[in-house]
Amino acid sequence: VFFGGLALTWGDTPWLGLLIATMALNLLFPILFHPLSRTLWVGMEMAARPLEPAEIVDAAAFGTGEWSLAGLGGEPSREG
Q1: Which of 22, 38, 39, 64 has the greatest number of C-beta atoms within 10 Å?
Q2: Full pLDDT tens readout for the chain, 80 residues
Q3: 11 lies in the same domain as 38
Q4: Do residue 32 and residue 2 come from a single domain?
């Protein structure tokens, strides 16, 4: 934004307006695109380190409600 605005207004650059616009976008951009960026990072993580078969079984058990956290350590276990 800064360099684009600078190039478009070369010669008579409104420095204060350019500064305010750049700061506003730097504030709003992370807030607006957080869900998308989180999805992209999780997708890259899944591509780099796919789920192991045990993790798939555990995820299926979680979806059916047969899942509990046993003990204080929070170790997952299946209820019988």
Answers
A1: 22
A2: 778 887 888 888 888 988 899 999 989 988 888 888 888 888 999 999 998 888 888 878 777 766 555 544 555 555 54
A3: yes
A4: yes
Burial 15-51 (b: 16+ CB within 10 A, else e): eeebeeebeeeeeeeeeeeeeeeeeeeeeeeeeeeee
Tokens of 58: 């555990």
8: tokens are 């478009």
Q: What is the rounded CA–CA span in Å between residue 28 and residue 34?
A: 10
2, 41: one domain: yes
User: How many structural domains does the chain have?
Assistant: 2
Q: Is 0.90 surpassed by the pTM of this model?
A: no
Residues 36 and 14 in one domain: yes
Which residues are paired to 67 by β-bridges? 78
Please provide the distance, in angstroms rounded to a whole number, between the alpha carbons at the two ends of the chain.
58
